[in-house]
Fold:
Amino acid sequence: MTSSAVTALRFHDLTLGYDRHPAVHHLDGSVEQGSLTAVVGPNGAGKSTLFKAIVGMLKPLAGSIERDGFAARDIAYLPQAAEIDRSFPINVYDMVAMGLWRRKGVFGGIDRKDHAAIEAGLAAVGLTGFEERAIGTLSGGQMQRMLFARLLVQDARVIVLDEPFSAIDARTVGDLLHLVRRWHVERRTVLAALHDIDLVKANFPETLLLAREPVAWGATREVLTADNLNKARHMCEAFDETAAACAVAAE
Amino acid sequence: MILYDALIAPFAEFEFMRRALVGTFALSFSAAPIGVFLMLRRMSLIGDALAHAILPGAAIGFLIAGLSMLAMAGGGLIAGFLVAIGAGLIARATPLKEDASLAAFFLISLALGVVLVSAKGSNVDLMHFLFGSVLAVNNATLLLIAGIVSVSLVVLALIWRPLVLECVDPAFLRSVSGAGAPTHIAFLALVVINLVGGFQALGTLLAVGIMMLPAVISRFWARDVTGMIAVAIASAAVSGFVGLLVSYHADLPSGPAIILVAGALYALSVVAGPVGGLIWSALPRRHLEA
Structure:
């Protein structure tokens, strides 16, 4: 949030939502390049909505997102409930190779260097030897490992992870957190939506506490106070069918 | 000589049988892979809906120009595209899902088509439209089929990667590329033109059979997309060959004969296919060590 560092993302009075009802209301602020930020908040707080807007899948109702020197599609994005059809007959290698899309497009071939990148990605998540396995045969943890291998192959400067560790066992979480820390060391910008407060305190220097409106944003230990968390829990979750047009927006 | 009489002679003696055989073989190469993707996208019944949608267009062509291949194929193409695009637009503009609006469209189309054909033609014409006739496959039709198959194979090669990715992980494709929507439209267009290619020999109701049955068969024999497509093409071609013979010897309409042969292959696959066939899961085999 300090102005001295280079920003990767800047939000200008950003309001996001569906059918004119805001899910994220008047968000201002910026994400520094190379920062590692946790986005914390109750269900329905607007975390996924914010991420969808960051990667360009949702148009803001008002305000804007400024991306510094990269397109929305250059962001590596791991959605919360991946819409992956696990019965589709494709193997782990091809799935991870899709991470090369931005560089290879529809026709580009996979050369020796790309092959090495794919193998390195699989090795980093501990899936070496799984290349020929159909994705339908993977367990939940292995599936998430494979998706992290694809993120590695994407080699993006900005990485957005929507609840990457839900329903995953402790060992897998540990291994994948190791990758997240490695990205941080490599000065990549990482945003992750998380629910485990202890995990956030131990691993994420910055936190945005969101409850449809930003509750607090900054250094994790200052944001995740009992007071703030309590505030976030009680902020309106109600969806008012008859809500009037927002007065702030009209100004 | 009995084998020759049964398997070769009909094609050697009659030109219309040769034409029908070439037509169905050619169609196998594009319709079967398209069917495999329809199945993998869980759109198996969409092909059926679009097949019905072609009928009124072909019927209007028939009303205007009689049994002219170009008029009927052109009408069918226009009607197919209108329904595909109309259903897509309504799905985007209203809460109705695409399959629901397609269902509405194809039922209206089918009824309209039957009314149009009955208005001018005889019952023979109606049967011809619905179930096809090998006699309808003239040189112009063969050229049309050849053109459709060539275009389909080129377009399939062009959209292969986004098509696969849109099936398996559409959200990821959206996050890295805008190719999803154009790919979807190109794919629906391929479905329509292949149905039009098939309807002369197979009829509007059964043209979709040469697309879907081989695709469903292939799922029981192969574990990857390439293998499935190979199996689908082979079973479509075999169904065409055997079906035409059955149609010739038993004096049956060609469309139902070809599709019934494919149906027999399907039954065989459900029972004995190595990937998930019934007898393999029923066999008492001991579980593996790891």
Chain A is about 35% helix and 25% strand. The mean pLDDT of chain A is 89.
